[in-house]
Amino acid sequence: MLILDCPYCGIACDETELSPGGEAHLTRFGPGSSEDEFEGYLFMRENPRGVHFERWRHAHGCGKWFHAARDTMTMEVFGTYPAQTTEPPAELRKTISEKRPGWSWRDFS
């Protein structure tokens, strides 16, 4: 069972208390964007085998959205952080790098 710590209320929640929101840190295109950009936003998602950044909502708790970093193969959770963060915190990226040397997913710089 997946257990994530809500960064807002501090409760360790199992997946029955949460609602998934898909991939985190997507570039959203507004009015005036091309059809290719909009199509990419709607349908093109990472589906990595390994480290993945996701959006979750504490649906049966505080109701707030947050991001989580986890390994899709082992279900190991590296950490959670507020949804208003535009990129994973440096300390979280460092933790992932120490546990998974050589991992790469996206360039957040």
TrEMBL record:
The cross-references to InterPro entries, in alphabetical order and at most eight, read: SoxD, SoxD_sf
Concerning Gene3D superfamilies, the annotation shows: Folate-binding superfamily
GO function term, MF aspect, one:
sarcosine oxidase activity
Q: Which GO terms describe its biological process?
A: tetrahydrofolate metabolic process
Per the UniProt entry, the signal peptide is none
This one is known as Sarcosine oxidase subunit delta
